[in-house]
Amino acid sequence: MENSCHYSVYVDSFVHGELEESRPCRDFENHLATCNECKEEIKAVSQVKEALINSYSMQLDETFNYHVLNTLRKGKHFEERKEIRIAVEDIIISFATLLAVVLLGIQLFHNPKVSSVEMAGRLTNIEKSSLEQSSLSKDQVLELVLRSK
Amino acid sequence: MSKIINIKIMTEKLNRSTSDSSIESKLNDRRIKENELIDRALERDESAYSEIIRLYKGKVAATVYSILGRDYVEEISHEAFIRAFNSIRNYRRDSSFYTYLIRITVNLCRDEIRRKQIKRIFNFTEVFNKSDDNDAQEQIQTGTSSDPINIYDAGETINIVREEMQNLPSILRVAVTLREIDELSYNEIAKLLNISVGTAKTRVFRARQILRDKLTERLSYGK
Ligand SMILES: [Zn+2]
């Protein structure tokens, strides 16, 4: 089986399509026209290759795809992006809430003394009726209402 | 030898012109397509995952079958895809995703062998760490195959190949699998097994030679 021809080094690459369009490929192809030794070698290498491919060819059907995708789904693989989006939205909402609280605080800080009359002026009718029915003192209720605003 | 296997005869290849539709551009097209799929997979597009599985499941299964045996195919192939997809953000595009997947598959085969402690048949420590092939010959097993060779009814040649593959030293079996079944280049094989290109070539050539000789011998006895 030993191939003494010095072109035989190209056989393996040739069979595997690795010489395509290169200069050695053209030279080798010209050489093959006259060298039976290399032709036989190509045949033998191809035969082993084909035999191996045939021996281990396997068809995994669509169930296999389904199982792989299902495992990924169970691992929440496809939700990763959604989760990132949700996390970003959460951060924005939290930031907006915090900003609103701070602004409200500043507003109150600059108007610390609000008279009972002014407070009463800010009440809605419902709040006024709640106030009348409440057991809390007038000031306590007004303070609560103000805070809630 | 010509009786051995029914193959596409190479003369077809020899007769074609050198300017035929270039394999290079086909490979480039394949690479571009693969890159698009990876982009979509990174966006968690489920259909891209399906397509990747469809493209490569045959090769992954054949690799497991050849290295470990039929019984391991579904389980290891499944795990290989899951690992590859779960680590898809770590995949750097310096090699094809296919090579990345095959690397994971081969590593899983190694883990499985270690776990099952079937080192008496496959000595994988040597597959991955050894660059000196002088001992390969010593590892040739005389025991029978653990693989049920008749699962695929595809003739005597196939049975002989499966049996003789199992009898090969593991370092040769893995190398020839990567070359002939996975169709990796010697550079890729060397990188994957952490050996030199020269060693990768030696292993493939030796495995091929043994298979050739065994096929010739056993089929001529059977005549
Ligand atoms: Zn020649």
Note down, in words, how this protein is organized.
- The complex is a heterodimer of chains A (149) and B (223).
- Chain A folds into three domains: 6-56, Arc Repressor Mutant, subunit A, CATH 1.10.10; 61-111; 116-148, no CATH class.
- Chain A is built from eight helices and no strands.
- Chain A has helices spanning 11-15, 23-32, 36-56, 62-74, 80-110, 116-121, 125-133, 138-148.
- The relative contact order of chain A is 0.05.
- Chain B has a domain at 24-119: RNA polymerase sigma factor, region 2, helix turn helix motif (Rna Polymerase Sigma Factor, Chain: A, Orthogonal Bundle), CATH 1.10.1740.
- Helices cover 65% and strands 0% of the residues of chain B.
- In chain B, helix 3 packs across helix 5 (97-116).
- Classes of the chains: A mainly alpha (149), B mainly alpha (223).
- At the A-B interface, helix 1, helix 2, helix 3 and helix 4 of A face helix 3, helix 4, helix 7, helix 8 and helix 10 of B.
- Zinc ion binds next to helix 3 of chain A.
CATH topology of one domain in chain B: Rna Polymerase Sigma Factor, Chain: A
Strand percent estimate of chain B: under 5%
Count of helical segments of chain A?
8
Mean pLDDT of chain A: 79
Mean pLDDT of chain B: 78
Helix and strand sequence of chain B: HHHHHHHHHH
Largest sheet of chain B: none
Range of strand content of chain A: under 5%
- The CATH topology of the largest domain in chain A: Arc Repressor Mutant, subunit A
- Span from first to last CA of chain A? 96 Å
CATH class of the largest domain in chain A: Mainly Alpha
Q: What is the count of helical runs of chain B?
A: 10
What is the CA-atom radius of gyration of chain B, in angstroms? 19 Å
H/E element sequence of chain A = HHHHHHHH
- Strand segment count of chain B: 0
CATH superfamily of one domain in chain B: RNA polymerase sigma factor, region 2, helix turn helix motif
CATH architecture of the largest domain in chain A: Orthogonal Bundle
Helix content range of chain B: 55-70%
Shape of chain B: globular
Number of domains of chain A: 3
Cα Rg of chain A? 42 Å
